[in-house]
Write a structure and sequence with these properties.
Layout: H1 3-16, H2 18-29, H3 43-46, H4 49-63, E1 67-74, E2 77-84, E3 93-98, E4 120-121, E5 124-126, H5 130-149, E6 158-163, H6 175-180, E7 188-190, E8 208-217, H7 226-230, H8 243-264, E9 277-285, E10 298-307, H9 313-330, H10 332-336, E11 340-347, H11 357-370, H12 385-390, E12 395-397, E13 412-414, H13 415-433
Parallel strand pairs: 3-6, 3-7, 7-12
Antiparallel strand pairs: 1-2, 2-6, 4-5, 5-13, 8-10, 8-11, 9-10
Length: about 425
């Protein structure tokens, strides 16, 4: 059987499996699998959900004829691996995705009042994790099942991975644990949603990401003497300093650096302005209760800093810190009372050359299934491709859905994208692993 014939056979098989594919995705969405290390989450209330989801997915891996490895790096958090053993002589391939989700927020904000509905309406399947990223995990698993049901034997090994902990960079419990357990391959495809700007795109790189935390000190006093410390002729910072206003000064200054980045930090696979310094948490507080009767003595600003794939993270930190030092020097209070600058979290970028064979194979597979050339662009966020690449595995991202609807109420995925992605994954496996 030629590759062209084999692809048509497996596409026909996937079309027959359409309702089963969507039913499996709905089933997984209905099983809450919130990552238990998410800030503010009660671990005891959510622990075990990732395992339950992977227990349900295991049936698809078994139907594909995979050898199953299900184990826990941490109690009640099971990773799932399925190995579809090749006949020999072909390249090996990993299909990777994560099964954990962020918390759902208020149920009332969701359609039908249910974050875990898994319901389909107007061609979209709704529910927490539907887009990020149970759709991709299911599409990869069902591609392997379709290959087996179609009687197609791959030469190279196909390794399916459904891991825990991605949402909190807990890769040592998930993707990195699979590498340490010995699951390596000649290439990998992570099924995170490719959009924006374009869904089902070949994504060979991501930004790097820092969590930057700035703690600003003020001087508390009675709010009614504000005029005495803000206007000329008053007592100034001998009386009081509003930590929130000093934080605003820093935030306004960092906007200038962000604007400079928007003009100067360019990359051919990212839209201009993608590399940003975004303030996403700000909390100013007086000593004692959170009431506005005392001038606040502390303010915290938490940023997400996104930088270019090829940049050194040390250089990025040094640039931001040097800028902040110059900002502090401009203000008499901050010059003496230096804010505390911390970097509590770093997610490195990944960067697979666009000329790498896995990029070429994925683009060809997309074109064969969809009937038009693949689009290449950078990943809008960060994902476990980083840790696969750090494990020595050339990796790309390709998946259904858009991050524009992830991490929000009424998260959904287009059902046609799920089916198309399933076909493209099968085509990638055929082309990369080879057929016997």
């Amino acid at each position: 059987m030629s590759e062209v014939e084999a692809l048509q056979v497996v596409i026909d098989q996937i079309d027959k499996m359409r309702e089963d594919i969507l039913a499996t995705l709905s089933q997984l969405v209905r099983i809450p699998s919130i990552t238990p290390k998410y800030p503010g989450i009660n671990r005891e209330e959510v622990i075990g959900g990732e395992t339950e989801c992977n227990k349900a997915l295991r049936h698809t891996y078994e139907a594909a004829g995979c050898h199953i490895d299900m184990w826990e790096e941490e109690p009640l958090r099971a990773n799932l691996i399925g190995v579809l053993k090749g006949t020999g002589g072909g390249r090996s391939l990993i299909f990777n995705g994560h099964i954990d989700t962020v918390p759902p927020g208020e149920s009332s904000a969701w359609k039908w009042g249910d974050p875990f509905s898994g319901r389909i309406e107007d061609g979209k399947l709704y529910g927490l994790g539907s887009c990020d990223m149970k759709a991709g995990v299911v599409a990869q698993a069902k591609a392997a099942e379709a290959l087996s049901k179609a009687g197609i034997k791959l030469k190279g090994d196909l390794i399916l991975e459904s891991v825990v902990g991605e949402e909190t960079m807990d890769h040592n419990a998930g993707t990195t644990a699979t590498i340490k357990r010995g699951y390596l391959a000649d290439a990998a495809v992570v099924s995170e949603p490719s959009g924006p700007p374009c869904s089902l795109a070949v994504v060979p790189c991501s930004p790097g990401l820092f969590w930057l935390k700035i703690t600003v000190k003020g001087k508390p006093t009675h709010v009614c003497v504000r005029g005495n410390f803000i206007w000329p002729g008053g007592e100034g910072d001998r009386i009081g300093v509003n930590a929130i206003e000093k934080a605003f000064f820093i935030a306004d200054s960092l906007k200038k650096l962000e604007h400079n980045w928007g003009m100067s930090k360019l990359h051919p696979l990212f839209a201009p302005g993608h590399f940003t310094i975004g303030p996403n948490v700000i909390l100013g507080t007086p000593p004692g209760p959170m009431v506005p009767f005392i001038v606040p003595h502390l303010c915290y600003i938490d940023y997400i800093v996104m930088y270019k794939p090829e940049e050194s993270p040390e250089d990025v930190k040094a640039e931001v810190e040097a800028f902040l030092e110059s900002v502090f020097d401009q203000d008499p209070w901050l010059r003496v009372n230096r804010p505390v600058v911390e970097w509590p979290h770093h997610w490195p970028s990944y960067d697979t050359p666009i000329e790498h064979p896995i990029c070429k194979v994925a683009a060809e597979a997309h074109a064969d299934v969809v009937g038009r050339p693949a689009v290449f662009h950078g990943f809008a966020a960060v994902d476990d491709a980083t840790y696969l690449q750090m494990g020595g595995i050339p990796t790309i991202t390709y998946g259904p859905g858009s991050l524009l609807v992830a991490h929000s109420a009424n998260e959904h995925v287009d059902v046609e994208e799920v089916i198309t992605a399933c076909k493209v994954y099968a085509a990638i496996a055929l082309k990369w692993c080879g057929i016997d």
